[in-house]
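Reopening this ticket.

The earlier resolution said the output was attached, but the attachment link was broken on my side. Pasting everything inline this time so it's all in one place.
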Amino acid sequence: MTIPGFSQADMPVVWQKDMGIKYIYHGTGLEKNDYSYVASEKEMAVFSNKDGHIYWKKTFKEIAPNLKKIDELVPFWDSKIIFLFDRKAGKDQIACIDLINGKLLWTTDKYQKVTADMIVYIAEDDGFAISLKKELVYIKARTGEELWSTSKFMGVVGKYVYNPNDNTMVMVNFIPNGIVAFFTGFKNQIARINMKTGEIIWENTYVGRADRKTVTRDFVYDLDVDDDKVILRLAGIQLYDYNTGASLWSAAFDYTPEGVIKPGKNQARFGVYGTVADPIVDGDDIYVLDMTSKKSQYIKKYDYHTGKLIWTSKEIKGARAIPGMTVTDGVVAIQVGGMVEVQYVQKIQTQYYTLTFPVVRYKGVKPYGIQAFNAEDGSYLWDSERFKKGITNAIVVGGNHIVCSGKSLYSLNLKTGDVNYEVPVSKGGTGLASLILPYNDQIVVVGEKGLSTFNPSDGSFIKNSVYKKSIPAGRIKNIILMKTDKDDFAAFNLDDLSYKQYNARKGATTWLEREDAKYVYVYEKKGVTKLQVY
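Inline output:
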């Protein structure tokens, strides 16, 4: 019996405006800051997120007369500043303008071959850190005045922790995809720097590859300061002394996901994420996946306080991705293969210009499987053969280990690998599963044609919400976005499985705002439409 979910309706229009520009660029700012923009090759307009009214519209020639053309626009929403790039042969021009009123703040041709990825806004100090080939430059955001430069920090400033008491900052460097060749002699650095003078107080090295996601710009690692310790969670965990930078202990490995999924045609800034499960802290212990070798991997258990290695599991051979790991009831279970996140910028070349739009998708990685190990001594427990042909992911709900093959849900006894129950996901009425999620002690199945929920204790079907054929395109809090191949989309509320939908016109692009997923912006031709998700 299929029990339908709650209401399905078209997304109500908050506002719809003709911007008066046949634009090829657009950017959606933060709701709290209330500024977004559209731009053609010759002019731009900045509009209000709240009601769509145009704050200002100007030609680039009016804003910055020394810029002959605009090759790229890069907004820094927190600063309310946008960078304009005119990339001339050997002499790039940069102009910074105020998003609030369109006034030119400053211009320069001093910094060459700078891309969006090489600029970081330091909100606590209202400055921009710009990474050049041989140095890091720090400038005032609204004047462009250069405060200091240092050749002792190479690469782009990644995640950082700013200390307002002494104006020092702990930061990690990295090289974004696409500009690796620009930085010669690069090495992984974690450093503490005096932000008033540029003096490097201390520096050390780290293991792994720090980065940001190509579309959503989320960091793929965490950096924290806890009293006198700096904690870097990247490819495992690495601890440093806050005062001296000395390495305290490390349980980390060097791993990059290149080749796990290859980019398609005309896909730029391609990135794959979630290929390796995060470390798990369980009381005084921490469990880490060692993915140093592309051919063999291990689970390692350490003392969380000292970094002492307690045990190493037997070799896990041939896994290209291990996106899931759980520690439950004395058992460490890992998910080999399954769904991982893919982000890229899709390019469409026309006769006159190139259109680009961001894409977030999920794709499966082979080989597949579930393996379990004894948390006490690392001894091998079992390996389930039934998932060799397919797996989406595995989750723990209400103490039950739930695995989805795409066709069925399985509840597994973690001690033995025995199946407590097997339930076809077809009972949910939404086709094959592409992903399962835990939510409010239920199993949420993200299917080909909508979402359905199941009871984790016995696998019984609860309810569903049916949509057209689509794939998951991101989650923010309790909202799941599903998109069709024609860019139609529906935003599902996990609280009750209700959804609101929008049928996109040909050529339109959409953006789900990323603060609380309350609104979707649709960009097409000269118009912008703001829709309400819930």
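Reporter confirms the inline version is readable. The domain at 152-254 is CATH 2.40.10.480 (Thrombin, subunit H). Residues 487 and 504 are 6 Å apart (CA to CA).
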